[in-house]
Amino acid sequence: MSINWIHNFPFFSIFLAMLGGILTALLNDRKKALRLNQLITLIVAILSLCLLLNVTANNESFTFMMGHFPAPWGNELRAGPLEALMAFVFSILMFLTVTGGQREIFTDVVSDKVKYFFIMINLIFGSILALIYTNDVFTAYVFIEINTIASCAVVMAKGHGRSIIASIHYLIMSTLGSGLFLIGLCLLYDITGHLLMPNIQEQLILLSRSGEYALPLTVVCGLVFIGLAIKSALFPFHTMLPNAYDNSTSAGAGILSGLVLKSYIILILKFIFQVFSLEVIQALKIENVLFVFGIVGMIMGSIYAFREVRIKKMLAYSSVAQIGYIFMGFGIGNMAGFTASCFHILAHAATKTLLFVSVGSLIETNGGKTGIRDLQGAGRLNPFAGVAYSVGALSMVGIPLFAGFASKYYFALSAAGGKLQLSIVLTALAISMILNAIYFIPTVISIWSKPEGEIKPKAEPTFSFKCVCVAFMMINFILGIFFQPIVAVIEQGLRLLG
Fold first, then answer.
1. Alpha carbons 174 and 150: distance in angstroms, whole number
2. CA–CA separation, 479 vs 476, rounded Å?
3. What is the spatial distance between Cα 118 and Cα 176, in angstroms, rounded to a whole number?
4. What is the number of other CB atoms lying within 10 angstroms of the CB of residue 111?
5. Which of 161, 309, 286, 159 is nearest to 224 (CA)?
């Protein structure tokens, strides 16, 4: 019997990341822990790229049964163009974020705790990959819990009182989301008797058409989506983000904002297409709820960001607004809206990791002060970080040639089917873009303005950091200029997913 090794790549990727967490615990050298993480992420990136090229060329998706036990006891993974694309981009961004923020990790995290930090990063990476590839709901829940615990540890890595309080807040909100999600899964299993996503979907479609279990099905949808909305920090469930990001390392904040939140959103997408189906979602009017919450999140996140005076908290509220964009696209309810949201997942992940890494270096250059006014002139002292932050800020505003513009362009196109919906989407996009400009452009001006008095940089950027900045900016320009082939892969993946 011949073995298609490509079909094993999703399992290999998850296994390598989880194994990395175990092996890191055996290391006593923090630089070796860093190198192991970098090696694993690069290997996973190569595996994901090979998988992406294979499934797109063959226009296929496949399931992979882990072990020898079929459903309902065994676990399954599913891979197609969309999953492979997400895994590839996330692997690259994980590598760049950790590499770019390594000096802050080594200086701000207690020396003998650094290896534990990398254990958590490896576990986060493994859980993100599992949420991307999973084909059964119980495996999804298990890795949600791993993701939550590891994320809380990353938040409290600095070890001071504020980071511990922020971690507890993050844990409480995350546990609430996990609990609601678990209750929803229990009810879902009770109604359908299945844990595999395709089997659940088959039963739910039959129940929806027959009119049976209408109320329980609505409750299940509510619990699952509210639970995952809390996990992904959709407004108004965002309260744990500002302090968590402000008190964690910049690399940790970049991973949490750019990658961890997106893994929950990808899981929502899988539930829409593979568990509930678009037919059931539309019958229960779930898309209307997602649309409203998305629009409100876009505006309110930007308003909170405009009022913030600390740079990392401002970026946290900006993430709330950008998550609103993604849910708005889901709420539009057509394939164009889902495509725009998937592209925005990539665009925001690439841009927000860039912003946090560059801000971390600017803060380090300016002596550790995190106030926006305190960063005046930091770009002059650290040009690589200044240019990188400026590129990220312009992308968030939606300037052409940057990743953020391409996603906003597709959001506008996706709403063209209805006059009322188009008017609401265009108005929300305009308001959000104006607000983004109001709070991002002044920060760009501030870091490039002439500082009051003569100051000297507290730390010179390393060569690896400069390379990371260039790579991040290249990714942003690639997403902003050559977006059509990427969108084509997303569309192909969504067709196979649905």
1. 12
2. 5
3. 26
4. 9
5. 286
Token couple for 222 = 């509510």
Retrieve residue 91's tokens: 């692997």
Name the nearest CA neighbour of 355 among 297, 316, 382.
Answer: 316
pLDDT digits (tens, 9 = 90+) for 57-110: 999 888 888 766 666 666 788 999 999 999 999 999 999 999 988 888 888 887
How far is residue 216 from each of residues 197, 204, 210, 445, measured CA to CA in Å? 18, 11, 14, 53
Contact in structure between 379 and 389 (CB atoms under 8 Å) = yes
Cβ neighbours around 1 below 10 Å, total:
2
Dihedral sign computed on CA atoms, order 345, 351, 355, 358? positive
Angle between helix 311-332 and helix 419-448 axes, rounded to 10 deg: 160
Which two structure tokens, joined as six digits, stand for 389?
């932050």
Q: Quickly count: other Cβ atoms within 10 Å of residue 459's Cβ.
A: 17
Q: How far apart are CA 123 and CA 139, in angstroms?
A: 15
- For 134, phi then psi, to 5°, come to -60, 145
Q: Helix 483-497 to helix 335-365 angle, to the nearest 10 degrees? A: 130
How far apart, in whole angstroms, are the C-alpha atoms of residue 436 and residue 117?
33
Given a contact cutoff of 8 angstroms between Cβ atoms, the answer to whether 256 and 244 are in contact is yes
Helix or strand (DSSP H, E) at 78: strand 75-79
Classify burial at 292, counting beta carbons within 10 Å of its beta carbon; exposed 0-12, middle 13-18, buried 19 or more.
middle
Q: What is the average pLDDT value for the chain, to the nearest integer? A: 88
pTM of this structure: 0.92
Question: Which of 151, 92, 105, 96 has the alpha carbon at shortest distance from 127?
Answer: 151
Residue 170 has pLDDT above 50, yes or no: yes
In the block, tokens 């932050």 appear at: 389
Tokens 């036990």 sit at which residue?
Answer: 69
Cα(479)–Cα(295) distance, rounded to whole angstroms?
24
Q: Mean pLDDT across the stretch 403-412? A: 88
From 449, 300, 334, select the one nearest 386 (Cα to Cα): 449
- The Cα–Cα gap between 279 and 114 comes to 48
The structure tokens listed for 39 are 């090696």
Compute the C-alpha angle 251/30/94, nearest 5°: 30
CA-closest candidate to residue 170, choices 188, 194, 148, 186: 148
Alpha helix locations (H) across 161-285? Answer: 161-192, 197-210, 214-231, 241-246, 250-255, 261-270, 277-283
Alpha-carbon span 134 to 130, nearest angstrom = 6
Q: Please confirm whether the linkage preceding 72 is cis (ω < 30° from 0).
A: yes
